[in-house]
Each structure stands twice: as structure tokens, then as C-alpha cells.
From TrEMBL:
Lineage summary: Bacteria, Bacillati, Actinomycetota, Actinomycetes, Micromonosporales
Subcellular localization, as worded in the UniProt entry: Cell membrane
InterPro entries according to UniProt: ABC_transp_permease
Highest taxon above the source species: Bacteria
Protein name in the entry: Sugar ABC transporter permease
Length: 363
């Protein structure tokens, strides 16, 4: 007598999540293709200047600090949150690091390490504050981080009396800000790449990343599965703050200034890059790799527009339009994934419906 065993049916809850994951990977691939096409267009228009080592080096340098911020922002947005304070935390951390390094004295690596500790501690402190208010006090992330944006920048201005500090040690400026690891490969880009790789591993290969996705997909289901949701949210915002503090030190080395008045658009640029790269603003799906590609697109557009003689302000218009389109398509895809159908744009659906009706009528 033989017995047959049937495989257990697939979980109906896992299927939408799997489809959403595939959609996220597809969107990241599409954004990568868009970046390649953009580079190809500007290369064809300015072959003698755009795709040169000097220009590519500048693009990579300009993206490096955004990439560090983008790693932390990706984790926050995957949980379904937002962090508008990263630009101000960057400034505050740079100010504290500058003051501490001046107090410590010297121009060598010992001074830089002291400044690094100060910057990381400053960013971590703001991240913990944000996380506690979001997770424990249940204040919406938008409100919490908007308040932190104002408070961190205000404290930075109080400390400096509204003036930029320019006391970065030569080791930080020469070796990190403008130094090269080998040839024309900038040190700041390599440091940023290390952070990005760490973020990829943390998100996709550790329990920390798994819990991050779980909270963004369904916080209540994660809580029932044993995830300490509040504690993990505090860790995620602390991680984002820590990276913002690190970015503050890199910013100090690259610009040789605390750039107090130059970071107002930084949170929006980073959020736009994260969303364009395939991380859903609704939470639950996303990738660090996609974020990096999404952050490159505005920088490449701005650089290319300048070279072809178009006002670089058009970059903001294009990025804004792409961002709205990406979020709209993401919303349609999420809805279709949850229904188990193929995503269709509304006007195409209406046209398809009219066409099918006419075919039925003719039959």
C-alpha cells in the first residue's frame, strides 16, 4: 500500500510579499537602465568632456556623501518611516567634530580619529532621540524628524553663531576629502563604497535587515512573530543618525567647511534618490543598491545639463517629475501585486476595456 504526500499550499500572505520583492528588483534594474541611457545621451552630446576620468571622478565624489546618507535612509523608509533631519544632523555633527578637533589640537590622524568619534556620537544621539519619539512616544516620523531638522540646525547655529567653521585638519582634507586611494580613484568614494557594501550585507544577510523588512511589511505580524518592533525602530533611526554623523565628518573634509547654510535640500535629495532607486515610500521593500543608482541620476543630470548648456535648475524639475512617476507606478504595482494581477495604468485599462467591449459586440 502506497501513500501519497501533497506539498503544503503556499502561504497566501507570502505570495504578495514575494511579488513585491520581484517588483522592487525589477524597478532597480529599470533605474539602472535609465542611468545608463542618461550617461549615453550626454556622452553622445559632449563626447570630449562628459565621459572623461576627471568628470566621472567629480560625479562620484559628489555622490559619495549622499550615498552614505542614503544607506541609513533606505533602512528608515523600508520600515515605513521617514527622516527629514539627516541634513541638519550632518551639519551639527560636523560642527561638534570641528570644535572637538580644534580643542584637541594637531593636524594629524589622531585629531581626525577624535573628530570621528565626536561626529559619530553626535549623529547617534540625534538618531536615538528620533527613534525613541517614533517608537515609544508614537509621534509620527514626519513630525519627529521635522522637529529634529529644526533643532539640530538651530543648535549648530548657536554653537557657531551662524558662521561656518573651517578648521578641518590637513589629514582629513588632503587624505579623505581630496585624496586618492590609487590613481584617480578618490578616497571619499572608496569610504562611501565600504559603507554601501556594509549596508547591503546588513540589509540582505542579517537578522537586522530581516526585521527591518518585516516591520515595513506588517509591523503587527512582525510583533506576533517575536520581533521587538519598538526596540528595532529605535535601532534603525539610531543607525541612520550614526551614518549622518559620519557623513558630517566626510562633508567637513570635502568642503573644508561645516556648510551650515548648504544642506537645506539634502534630505529631499536623499529621499528622492531612495524612492527613485526602488525603495517604496509605503515601506516593506527596497534595496541599498537601488538607492545608490537612484542617487547617481540627479548628479549625472546636473552635470550633463551644465555641459550641454542647459540651466542646471532643470535637474530639479526632471527629478521631481521622475519621483512622482516612480511613486505613482509603485502604488499601482503594490496594489496589483496584492491582487495577484498585472499592473495597468488607469487610462490603458479604460482603453483595454473599451477595446474588449467592442470585440464582444462584434462577436
Amino acid at each position: 500500500m502506497t501513500t501519497t504526500r501533497t506539498a503544503p499550499p503556499a502561504s497566501t500572505e507570502d505570495a504578495p510579499t514575494s511579488r513585491l520583492s520581484r517588483i522592487s528588483r525589477l524597478q532597480a534594474l529599470q533605474i539602472l537602465i535609465l542611468l545608463v541611457v542618461t550617461v549615453a545621451v550626454f556622452t553622445a552630446l559632449r563626447p570630449e568632456t562628459f565621459l572623461t576620468g576627471f568628470n566621472i571622478r567629480g560625479i562620484v565624489q559628489n555622490t559619495a556623501i549622499y550615498a552614505v546618507l542614503g544607506v541609513g535612509m533606505t533602512f528608515v523608509i523600508i520600515t515605513g518611516g521617514i527622516d527629514l533631519s539627516v541634513g541638519s544632523v550632518l551639519v551639527f555633527s560636523g560642527v561638534v567634530a570641528d570644535k572637538i578637533m580644534v580643542w584637541y589640537g594637531g593636524q594629524g590622524w589622531g585629531t581626525v580619529l577624535v573628530g570621528l568619534v565626536a561626529a559619530l556620537a553626535s549623529g547617534l544621539a540625534w538618531g536615538l532621540v528620533n527613534g525613541f519619539l517614533v517608537a515609544k512616544a508614537k509621534v509620527p516620523p514626519l513630525v519627529v524628524t521635522l522637529g529634529s531638522l529644526s533643532a539640530a540646525l538651530g543648535f549648530a547655529q548657536i554653537i557657531t553663531k551662524g558662521l561656518d567653521l573651517r578648521d578641518a585638519p590637513q589629514a582629513l582634507v588632503n587624505d579623505i576629502g581630496f585624496g586618492n586611494i590609487v590613481g584617480q580613484v578618490p578616497t571619499i568614494a572608496v569610504v562611501s563604497a565600504v559603507v554601501v557594501i556594509f549596508g547591503i550585507v546588513l540589509l540582505h544577510r542579517t537578522r537586522f535587515g530581516l526585521y527591518t523588512y518585516a516591520i515595513g511589511s506588517n509591523a503587527e505580524a512582525g510583533r506576533r512573530a517575536g520581533v521587538k518592533v519598538e526596540r528595532h525602530l529605535i535601532k534603525v533611526y539610531a543607525f541612520a543618525g550614526l551614518l549622518a554623523g559620519f557623513a558630517g565628518l566626510l562633508n567637513l573634509g570635502f568642503f573644508q567647511s561645516t556648510t551650515i547654510g548648504g544642506q537645506s535640500n539634502t534630505p529631499l535629495n536623499v529621499i528622492a534618490g531612495v524612492a527613485i532607486g526602488g525603495t517604496s515610500l509605503f515601506g516593506g521593500i527596497g534595496s541599498v543598491f537601488g538607492t545608490v543608482i537612484g542617487l547617481f541620476i540627479p548628479i549625472v543630470l546636473q552635470n550633463g545639463f551644465i555641459q550641454v548648456g542647459v540651466q542646471p535648475f532643470w535637474q530639479q524639475v526632471v527629478v521631481g517629475a521622475v519621483l512622482v512617476a516612480v511613486v505613482y507606478i509603485d502604488q499601482l504595482r503594490r496594489a496589483s501585486a496584492l491582487r495577484g494581477t498585472s499592473p495597468r495604468l488607469p487610462f490603458l485599462s479604460r482603453a483595454g476595456g473599451a477595446g474588449s467591449a467592442s470585440r464582444k459586440g462584434s462577436a
